[in-house]
Write a structure and sequence with these properties.
With 439 residues, this protein is mainly α. The chain has a single domain, classed as MFS general substrate transporter like domains (Growth Hormone, Chain: A), CATH 1.20.1250.20. It has 15 helices and 2 strands. A two-stranded antiparallel sheet has the order 1-2. The longest helix is centred in the first third of the chain and has 32 residues, at 8-39. It is globular and about 70 Å long. The model has no long low-confidence stretch (mean pLDDT 78). Pfam families: MFS_1. InterPro entries: MFS, MFS_dom, MFS_trans_sf. It is found in: Cell membrane. Residues 1-394 form the Major facilitator superfamily (MFS) profile domain.
């Protein structure tokens, strides 16, 4: 499980990720409490709109940032973006109006939209071995769960001694520590290849999604993932503080329960994925979240029931999210991987752009029980769509032919291009379309 940490470069990046996520997790708790101060029982609406801005920034910025950053030094780019995020977090304690929250969070989310895909795309370059990369994905999932477990727990403890506004200082510190560890990380030097035109770099990742069946299924499952996650992230503070009349500390513990379930699933996933396909694990996770949302509409009547529901939701969430990196890696070569990760970042967050406002607006206009049901329908839709569009038979090596191959094409190993041959298949310049079963 922890063997990737023997690699010094990955160890530094992983530490940077942990530091940034610990800070981000405290900011998530503080932002929810700030929204409750600004809007009371309608906090879900304020928080939902703030998170919708996050999704708009992620969708619009990530592909452009990936295309523009292709010629930039990766380390300098990541450090600069961490510094921007630290400055924004430091300004959040001074806001007093909802529009100020929206403005600052826009800057923060734009920086994150550029940072995250570039960061994720480096991991396969550091760990080319499939087994090590799978373990690294689970470790990254565990690190992300710190945002849902350790950060809320730490926030709950700190809230006993200080105002929630002071939690934003912890966010700034997290980003500063992240920048320091990125500076000290030894990153791999990529093989220099001829740069594609900007438009091809911008749209290349989306093209891979359009032409690769498993990637289309991945986006469908992202709809289910967003529906379950949005209910937790938007309405936890509403359920705990408005329905149950409990404190901000109780809301933090509820988020920690969700993260605990996610962490438990992430620990089990490396062994599970040795026995089941990525598709199977992700569909299981989506089905679990659908059932939790349906049950939550009638069962989320006490704080204890909510803790149990959120822990199970965390299991389903991790099952849908963690294997995604494996599917992305199988579907791209090293040169196209940054564009593919940026496209996945943008396309998956398009689902969150739907789910976040639904979670906030339905809860504010009706009640959280109605939000449970509406999001359950959205989650079920993503689950069924993923089952349909992601083929159950999805091998890495695919037999195919080339209509007009170059005679000296090295990947043919001396065979005639018109002959049926097989190898790990990804869409690229030599393979512009997905082979049919007839090939």
């Amino acid at each position: 499980m922890f063997s990737p940490l023997r690699h010094a470069g990955y160890r530094h990046l992983f530490t940077a990720q942990v530091a940034a996520l610990l800070g981000t997790g405290m900011a998530t708790v503080a932002l929810g409490l700030l929204a409750h101060d600004l809007a009371g029982a309608n906090a879900g609406e304020v928080l939902g709109m703030a998170l919708a801005i996050k999704m708009i920034a992620y969708i619009g910025v990530a592909p452009f940032a990936s295309a523009l950053a292709a010629r930039l030094p990766r380390k300098a780019l990541l450090v600069s973006l961490d510094v921007v995020r630290a400055c924004v977090a430091g300004a959040l304690p001074f806001v007093g109006e909802a529009w100020e929250v929206y403005a600052l969070m826009t800057v923060l989310y734009v920086a994150s939209a550029a940072f995250t895909p570039a960061f994720q795309a480096m991991i396969p370059d550091l760990l080319p071995d499939e087994a090590e990369y799978t373990k690294a994905l689970s470790l990254s999932r565990l690190a992300a769960d710190l945002e849902s477990v350790a950060s809320p727990v730490l926030a709950a403890v700190l809230l006993a001694f200080m105002s929630y506004n002071n939690l934003f200082a912890g966010t700034s510190l997290g980003f500063v520590i992240s920048a320091l560890f990125v500076v000290t990380a030894a990153l791999p030097v990529l093989t220099q290849t001829a740069q594609k035109p900007f438009i091809q770099r911008l749209t290349g990742g989306v093209r891979l999604f359009a032409l690769t069946p498993r990637l289309r299924g991945l986006i469908a499952i992202s709809i289910a993932e967003a529906a379950g996650g949005a209910m937790v992230f938007v309405n936890t503070v509403v359920l705990v503080q408005s329905r149950f009349a409990m404190s901000g500390q109780a809301a933090a513990w509820a988020l920690a329960a969700f993260g605990a379930g996610s962490m438990a699933a992430a620990i089990a996933l490396p062994r599970l994925l040795d026995r089941v396909a990525d598709r199977t694990a992700m569909l299981w996770g989506a089905a679990i979240m659908t059932l939790v949302l349906l049950g939550g509409s009638v069962l989320a009547t006490t704080y204890v029931a909510l803790l149990i529901l959120w822990a199970v939701m965390g299991v389903g969430y991790s099952l849908t999210l963690t294997p995604a990196g494996r599917a992305l890696r199988r579907s791209s070569n090293a040169q196209d991987r940054p564009a593919l990760f940026a496209a996945q970042f943008a396309l998956s967050h398009a689902a969150w752009l739907i789910a976040y406002p639904v979670a906030g607006l339905v809860s504010a206009a009706a009640d959280p029980s109605a939000a449970f049901l509406v999001l359950a329908a959205l989650c079920a839709f993503g689950t069924v769509l993923g089952f349909v569009v992601w083929p159950a038979n999805d091998p890495t090596d695919l037999p195919h032919r080339h209509d007009a191959p170059a005679e000296d094409d090295p990947h043919l190993d001396g065979q005639s291009g018109e002959a049926l041959h097989s190898h790990p298949f990804v869409i690229d310049e030599r393979h512009p379309r997905w082979p049919t079963t007839k090939e």
